[in-house]
Design a protein that fits this description.
Layout: E1 4-10, E2 14-21, E3 26-30, H1 35-45, E4 51-53, H2 59-62, H3 65-72, E5 75-79, E6 91-93, E7 98-101, E8 104-110, E9 119-123, E10 128-132, E11 135-136, E12 139-140, H4 148-159, E13 166-169, H5 174-184, H6 189-203, E14 211-212, H7 213-219, H8 228-233, H9 241-253
Parallel strand pairs: 3-4, 4-5, 5-6, 10-13
Antiparallel strand pairs: 1-2, 2-3, 7-8, 8-9, 9-10, 11-12, 13-14
Helix pairs in contact: 5-6
The structure holds zinc ion and fe (iii) ion (FE).
Fe (iii) ion (FE) binds near residues 60, 133, 170 and 171.
């Protein structure tokens, strides 16, 4: 049986995710934004927490690691090259590693940029990826620690996944991301249509997460430095993709 994902809001704009493998009855919290809502979600589903899969060290992703480990005795998985900053880490993963989660396998990608030790988990049999703060719906993570080139390389790894891949990103930033995206690629009809759908969803208080790789490739400016319209808008027609990505990220920081 397939991986079941349960999504719920945490803090002001984070999402919590529980990933449950019914075959072997294991349940992971993808990051630990907030103890209370995670325990409530586990109760609602009747699931026992066996794992925490951390994407990166920020407090809104690891803040409840220790409390949850004390309560549930769960195994904490995180980035080997950021182990010092992942509270309670038990299992250290590097790029290309495979993590056996119950009856399922997650491919681990190192996707640095937002932080230097950021990883993503890709369940290829399920077409599901948990990407933390690397890729957002219509956005990408701020570059707190990495370079634009590093982030562009990371995003290219995620872009290479099949279009149908369901992408669980860690924040509901989509509506403001859409405003920026429209400012740099106003000629993208798919983006215009999507932004209207996003406004309608948010007006009803509904989430815009998860998204898909295909939808992001078509509409997310940070995956589209090859777009002539975007290049023109940021004044870099014909420039190399890293330069266009760098300028786009800079403009978002100042938007
Ligand atoms: Zn973060
Ligand atoms: Fe975050």
């Amino acid at each position: 049986m397939a991986l079941q994902v349960y999504q719920f809001p945490c803090r002001s704009d984070n999402y919590g995710f529980l990933a449950h493998d019914p075959t072997l009855n294991v349940t992971a919290s993808i990051d630990t934004p907030e103890e209370g809502p995670i325990n409530t979600a586990l109760e609602e589903k009747g699931w026992r927490l066996t794992h925490i899969l951390n994407t990166h060290h920020h407090g809104d992703h690891t803040g409840a690691n220790i409390a949850l480990k004390e309560r549930w005795g769960c195994t904490i998985v995180g980035a080997a090259n950021d182990a010092d900053r992942i509270p309670g880490i038990d299992v250290r993963m590097a790029d290309g590693d495979k993590y056996q989660f119950g009856s399922l396998i997650a491919d681990v990608f190192e996707v640095p940029g937002h932080t230097t030790g950021h990883i993503a988990y890709y369940f290829s049999s399920e077409d599901i990826a948990f990407v933390g703060d690397t890729l957002f719906a219509l956005g990408c993570g701020r570059l707190f620690e990495g370079t634009p080139e590093m982030m562009w390389n990371s995003l290219q790894k995620l872009m290479a996944l099949p279009d149908e891949t369901i992408v669980y990103c860690a924040h509901e930033y989509t509506q403001s991301n859409a405003q920026f995206a429209l400012s740099v690629e106003p000629g993208n009809a798919a983006l215009v249509a999507r932004s209207q759908e996003i406004d309608a969803l948010r007006a009803e208080g509904k989430p815009t997460v998860p998204t898909t790789i295909g939808l992001e490739r078509a509409t997310n400016p940070f995956l589209r430095p090859m777009s002539e319209n975007l290049q023109e808008t940021v004044g870099l027609s014909g420039a190399d993709l890293v330069s266009v990505f760098t300028e786009t990220r800079l403009r978002k920081d100042n938007f």
